Amino acid sequence: MAEHKILIEKIKKLKKQKNAVILAHNYQRPEIYDVADFIGDSLKLCLEARETDADIILFCGVSFMAETACILNPDKKVIVPFIDAGCAMADMLSIEALRKMKKAHPGVPVVTYVNSSAEVKAESDYCCTSANAVEVVRRIEGDKVLFVPDRNLAGYVGRQVPEKKVIAFDGYCPVHDMINAEYLDDAIKTYPSAKLIAHPECRQEVLERADAVRSTSGMIKAVQEMDAEEFFVLTECGMIERLKREVPGKKFYGLCNMCFDMKKNNLESVFRCLEDEGPKVKVDKNVASKALLSLENMFDIMEDHG
Ligand code: SF4
Predict the structure, then answer these.
(1) How many angstroms separate the CA atoms of 201 and 33, rounded?
(2) CB of 158 within 8 A of CB of 164?
(3) Across the chain, where does the E strand assignment appear?
(4) Is the pLDDT reported for residue 95 higher than 70?
């Protein structure tokens, strides 16, 4: 504990000296929260990355998030403790597979979940996050969209926007897709008073039985507002700690479904990364400028429609 305190102080001092900012995803280990300047879901972190005037962005999350920060800040140094912290869902969609899908559906706009590689974003028309996917798809002209890479989020969006045909790629997040109706039956039996709150990366059979479907940051707001004291949280297990900190008066339960890539970082590796100013995240200039357009198209929709 004393070691943690010393490291926290050292990291805070280095951040000041180097004019660095630490962005951390909600699924990070709780010790990372103690040194982060901003903690949130992909949307919140994209917005913070876009606004920051720091010289260095240290990203505590997985590679597609750090790449996004890099695309939004081509002149800043974006660093990560582990360059190999990846996302199984993002890895499911190759650029070739996306091109094949586009060829099969010529002229249909491509909406790409931010959990994707920079190359895939560059080949897309719009980006979205789990917090704004429904609004992005609703606002696009036309009656069809290609939605990649998450089939579960695509299905959820399609049910919220029935006027459009949402054609999905068959990717998924293994951490969310493992949750099924049997788990829910057990949860309901064990915690009968708990409300079920689910991330839209979960399967349809889970989302249909949830009391609320939200992005991770949306979950914090929802549990603050909902008239209930106990919640069963259907997302990556790290979210439980985040909710306990943000809403201390309520009780949270969940599963042991961990995203190991999200848990690679700890205080030691963050300190080392800041001290070395690396490893540095790099995105090819041409790819970054094309990917930026799909991100800007997402921001434009959000700005136009509040
Ligand atoms: S929880 Fe799933 S979607 Fe999120 S980083 Fe891990 S594998 Fe990717």
Answers:
(1) 23
(2) yes
(3) 20-25, 38-40, 56-60, 77-79, 110-113, 126-128, 144-148, 165-168, 195-198, 212-213, 230-234, 251-254
(4) yes
Question: Among the atoms of ligand 1, which is closest to the Cα of residue 261?
Answer: 6
* Ramachandran angles phi, psi of 22, nearest 5°: -110, 120
**37 plus 71 within the same structural domain:** yes
Q: State in Å: Cα 63 to ligand 1 middle.
A: 11
Question: CA angle, corner 22, sides to 253 and 126, nearest 5?
Answer: 80
> Would you tell me the crossing angle of helices 216-225 and 238-246 to the nearest 10 degrees?
40
Cα–Cα distances in Å, from 52 out to 1, 44, 68?
31, 12, 14
List the 195-198 sheet strands across, edge first.
212-213, 195-198, 230-234, 251-254
How many domains would you assign to the chain?
3
Express each pLDDT in 212-229 by its tens digit: 999 998 999 999 999 999
Residue whose entry in the numeric block shows the structure tokens 């004393």: 2
Element (H, E) at 268: helix 267-276
> Do residue 110 and residue 247 come from a single domain?
no
CA 262 to centroid of ligand 1, rounded, Å? 8
Shared domain check, 223 and 161: no
Q: Sorting pLDDT into bands at 50, 70 and 90, what band is 306?
A: low
DSSP state of 255: -
Ligand 1 surroundings by CB, under 6 angstroms: 62, 87-89, 115, 173, 175, 236, 259, 261-262
Residue 64 contacts residue 87 (beta carbons within 8 Å): yes
Query: Are residues 81 and 93 located together in one domain of the fold?
Result: no
